[in-house]
Specification:
Blueprint: H1 6-26, H2 29-36, H3 41-53, H4 55-69, H5 72-93, H6 97-124, H7 131-159, H8 165-185, H9 201-207, H10 212-221, H11 226-236, H12 245-269, H13 271-290, H14 295-324, H15 330-359, H16 361-397
């Protein structure tokens, strides 16, 4: 970890603490809505779509403003603070679907505002040939928080006699701690302020001409939400409600174990192939949820593959983006990719919820698996072209 620098480690600590807070809520939200409040799968699909779709606009705003004023840390801090206060909104929403949707939207808007400036800080503080390693270390720390969050939730639920209110309050307090760590220990990128022409909307529009954005959107369109994966798995094996939060723990454990090694592998053998391989494991997850395997073998296999999917794609995609976009538009370009993927993901969640309600969970998973497999060859084509274009530009510049 020493080779990635202090900025990456400090941001990793912020993400670790933030993810404890976020996963405390995420681990129980599907159960809270579908079982506790009796929301239909379609209604949950809409809220799950909002959970990611709400980030689209503010991802772009966060990335653009961070580049424009060259204050990535400040913009990221605003996003972290917004997400923290959204936890209290979930507490105040009660059983109201619209108010829950509003609180979720605010929470995800905060995530959208902070993500691109944070990832830009990582790329600006890391040499090009170590980007995979840097994002691997950061995502490992992030996944450690995701691993601990559901465990903290179980403890709070036990102490609070199963009430959800104390979970939201504790999540809020932990999120505020992350904001404090960011303010005290993360340096801003600094450096000379870019010229306005370099961060104009015309320059931003030019970022979308590459092939990384359509590839990210395509894969987002065939990716369903974590909540759906865990709900299908819970119903397939008739898992007790008390075990449900531990499904996220299993995924996060595999993620944190593999993120750094797969990041180093991506730097050595090529980020494209690690990224595509990760998406192939996602298709395998959907096939397993449809297939005949059951019991604990199904649980263990699905969680292992699902964690591998995240470890091989999340940070590696941002390492790819860090190689493609220029420094003065780094946060904006990364936000553009993240926004496109988030918008596609929100559509996917709504469609999967409708498919589940119309055809059943098994058939919906089969359709998702077929779509994911069909998307892989086109993704390879798009990203191979992008990699060749990048290599040609680097050769000319050298």
């Amino acid at each position: 970890m020493r080779s990635v620098g202090g900025t990456v480690l400090a941001l990793g600590t912020v993400s670790l603490v933030t993810d404890i807070s976020a996963e405390m809520v995420t681990a129980i939200l599907p159960l809270y809505l579908v079982v506790g409040l009796q929301f239909s799968p379609a209604a949950y699909g809409v809220i799950d779509g909002l959970y990611t779709g709400a980030t689209v606009l503010l991802r772009l705003v966060g990335g653009y403003v961070g580049d424009r004023v060259n204050r990535h840390k400040t913009v990221a801090g605003l996003g972290y603070g917004l997400s923290a206060f959204a936890k209290l909104g979930l507490l105040a929403a009660g059983a109201s679907g619209p108010l829950i949707g509003l609180a979720v939207t605010v929470d995800r808007a905060g995530k959208g505002l902070r993500t691109a400036p944070r990832d830009a800080l990582i790329t600006l503080a890391t040499p090009h040939d170590r980007l995979g390693r840097a994002f691997g270390v950061h995502r490992t720390m992030d996944a450690t928080g995701a691993f601990l969050g559901p465990i903290v939730t179980l403890g709070v639920l036990a102490l609070g006699n199963g009430a959800f209110g104390p979970v939201f309050v504790t999540s809020f307090c932990v999120a505020l701690l992350a904001v404090l760590i960011l303010v005290m220990f993360v340096p801003d990128a600094g450096g000379p302020r870019p010229r306005p022409a370099e961060v104009s909307w015309r320059a931003v529009a030019g970022l979308g001409r590459g092939r990384l954005l359509p590839a990210a959107c395509l894969l987002g369109l065939v990716t369903i939400g974590d909540g759906f994966v865990y709900l299908v798995l819970q119903r397939r094996v008739d898992l007790g409600i008390g075990w449900f939060p531990l499904l996220a723990v299993g995924t996060s454990l595999v993620y944190l174990l593999l993120a750094a090694p797969l990041g180093r592998l991506a730097d050595r053998v090529g980020r494209l192939w690690v990224f595509v391989g990760g998406n192939a494991t996602l298709a395998a997850v959907y096939l397993l949820l449809y297939g005949p395997l059951g019991g604990w073998p199904l649980v263990v296999t699905v969680l292992a593959l699902y964690g591998t999917f995240y470890a091989a794609t999340d940070g590696v995609l941002m390492a790819l983006a860090g190689s493609v976009f220029p420094p003065e538009l780094r946060a904006t370009g990364m936000a553009l990719v993240q926004s496109g993927q988030a918008l596609s993901y929100s559509v996917s969640s709504v469609l999967f919820g409708l498919a589940w309600q119309a055809w059943g969970a098994g058939a919906a998973c089969l359709v998702a698996a077929v779509a994911a497999l069909l998307a892989l060859p086109l993704t390879v084509f798009l990203l191979t072209k992008e990699s060749r274009s990048l290599s040609a530009r680097e050769h000319v510049s050298s």
